[in-house]
Amino acid sequence: MKTLSETDQLEMVRQIDDLDFSVLSADETNEERGAFAPLFATTLPEIEAQSEKFTNIGLEAISHGKVGAVLLAGGQGSRLGFDHPKGMFNIGVERELFIFECLINNLRTRAASDCRYERQAYAFRKRYYFYRS
Q: Please, which pLDDT band fits residue 130 given cuts at 50, 70 and 90?
């Protein structure tokens, strides 16, 4: 089994130290919560008509570090004849390529190519927020 280099271990510890765990106890406060109401839904034709506007809003949010991605994955690879989570399944033909790795690489490539803001692209390339062992 591979392990992280000492530099990567220190970086991971630094990232963990930077986490704000106080949000985990947010529901324990006695603060009054706001009213809940159904969300407004935008139709596909409305989205298509305002595509450029929505793209610009998204790119602006990315440039200010206000966008994140969470990869929700679950389930075993039993139908693949694999005894581990299917994200760990090697789909590579000429080299090892795992499903999780493929998804993360697609996200990184897309985020970097769509980014019109050089400082965000640099930050994204510098910190992948993804460790493999």
A: very low
